[in-house]
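Support request, please re-run this one:
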Amino acid sequence: SGGHINPAVTFGLLLARKLSLTRAVFYMIMQCLGAICGAGVVKGFEGSSRFTIAGGGANVVQPGYTKGDGLGAEIVGTFVLVYTVFSATDAKRNARDSHVPILAPLPIGFAVFLVHLATIPITGTGINPARSLGAAIIYNKDQAWDEHWIFWVGPFIGAALAALYHQVVIRAIPFKSK
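Re-run finished. Output below.
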């Protein structure tokens, strides 16, 4: 699959016409099912009491921040991630730097690391709607669902903006002058 584990990245690639609609929908369904299973495994290893104390790993906007802050953090964080994916896997870049494609996971992983440093205090870092969904389903308490929409809307907007920026601004064909 190319390592598709995040519906927001898949959505960005769909918008950039790098994936078919059928494949993107299939990937997103499987990503969500995988996240639900993963959260269930974590609950099994942690035990119900520790899992509940940790809030089930569900994303929430932290006290002191507004829903707008949380949404903004998710948009910007996902933009950084998806733009990094586009840049690290760009076919034109790979043709120019033939020794680099094998190293694409390094900048992507570094981007995820930096986004986590910036957004954990605000939202616990969503940037992956499937992971947020899996934790919310397995934890299944009101606090996991109250602001859950932020962890879908924010990443999808961030992914759309990254796809638009990469396709229109970065990969734009220059206008011909007469």
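The chain has a mean pLDDT of 89. The chain is about 70% helix and 0% strand.
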